[in-house]
Prior knowledge:
alpha+beta; Arc Repressor Mutant, subunit A; two-stranded antiparallel ribbon
Amino acid sequence: MSTKLLDTDKEESKIGEGIYLTPDVARILNLPYQKVYSLMKGFWQGYAFGDKGNKAVNFYSLIEFYIYFQCRQNGMSAQKFKKYHSRLSATLKTKYPFAHHKIRTDFRNIWAEVEGNLIKADGKHQYDSLHLLEKFLHNVSYGENNMAIKFYPLGKQTKVVVDPKHQFGQPVVDGTNIKTKSLYSLHLGGETNKTISNLYNISLDKVRDAITFHTMAA
């Protein structure tokens, strides 16, 4: 697919917005590399930055990749997603509508919360109930501007977080600047969880979550 998601100016990397190459997106979201690669060159081409053979996206695009694949797994067509994205971008006045807190979805259809009502992205229906399935919200935290600020790939109950303000957005132990990859490397080197915990002065739960995350992504 070579069609851009939206007509946009060329993206550039900005400090605090995260830098995610194709392997990073695939690893963090536990997605097939080839699918991410194809979307980075096609569907999300207008959002990528960097050299031709070394494209990257920012944190907001990472969240949109996550929502896109959740919707696709639940049967939403790529064309329908693209149409929803365009309409919601205009409604919410943001280039990254699926990284916005006002989005509601059951991953088969998508709504935007506008003045307390839910407006379906196809523009045909309006709802006054906010009681819809919001699975992805359990993994995303939002800031004062209603945009995503943190992503918890294993869920908020765990201690692995993707925060664009820490380590250029690479997964870290929540509440620290410690890369989870550093803990996993020690684990692969034969160190026990207790030793790793003592070395970094963090709890065993944090060590276990970091190891689980990288084991799943391997």
